Amino acid sequence: MILVETSAWVEFDRATGSRTHQRLRELIIDGADIAVTEPVLMEVLAGARSEAAAERLRCLLTSFHWLPADAGTDFEGAAKIYRACRRAGVTPGGLVDCLIAVVALRHGARLLTADAGFVRMARVVPLVLDV
Questions:
Q1: Taking a C-beta distance cutoff of 8 angstroms, is the pair 65, 28 a contact?
Q2: 3-state secondary structure of 58
Q3: For the chain, how many structural domains are there in total?
Q4: Could you tell me if 61 and 44 are in contact, meaning their C-beta atoms sit under 8 angstroms apart?
Q5: What is the CATH classification number for the domain harbouring 15?
Q6: Domain, as residue range, for 42
Q7: Residue 2: strand pairing partners
Q8: What burial letters (b/e) apply to 74-111, b meaning 16+ CB within 10 Å?
Q9: Cα(123)–Cα(131) distance, rounded to whole angstroms?
Q10: What is the CA radius of gyration of the chain?
């Protein structure tokens, strides 16, 4: 399973032609086991350029496997990742990125991302990236 992170969806939506855009396109065409979680949906919808674009993106993202964040464990897990990164001298992208990472870890999913913050984070926690 591949949890597709916000930056990858942005690359795809903007058709940038980047390696991440091409990888996500291949995964969709191949019918790969793509997953989305609430924080990713929130960030993608927040960045939509119009209400029509937001609705199109919502329909697209919710058509894939859903990995729900577990408020009982994932918020605390995200805080632990944040602290571990800080102790290691790594600045994580933010708590939302840590929450996305902990959801991927809990579900044993790889993370497709174009965000260098996750590359730094993966040096501290056992996050498997598909970059």
A1: no
A2: helix
A3: 1
A4: yes
A5: 3.40.50.1010
A6: 2-130
A7: 34, 110
A8: beebbeebbeebeeeebebbeeebbbbbbbbbeeebbb
A9: 14
A10: 14
Give rounded-to-5 percent helix, strand, coil for the chain. 55, 10, 35
89: its two tokens:
């001298």
pTM for this prediction: 0.95
Give pLDDT tens digits for 54-100: 999 999 999 999 999 999 999 999 999 999 999 999 998 899 999 99
- Sheet architecture: strand order including 34-36: 65-66, 34-36, 2-4, 110-112, 129-130
2-52 tens-digit pLDDT? 999 999 999 999 999 999 999 999 999 999 999 999 999 999 999 999 999
Q: What is the DSSP letter of 91?
A: -
* CB half-sphere exposure, 17, CA atoms < 13 A: 0
- At position 61, the amino acid (one-letter code) is L
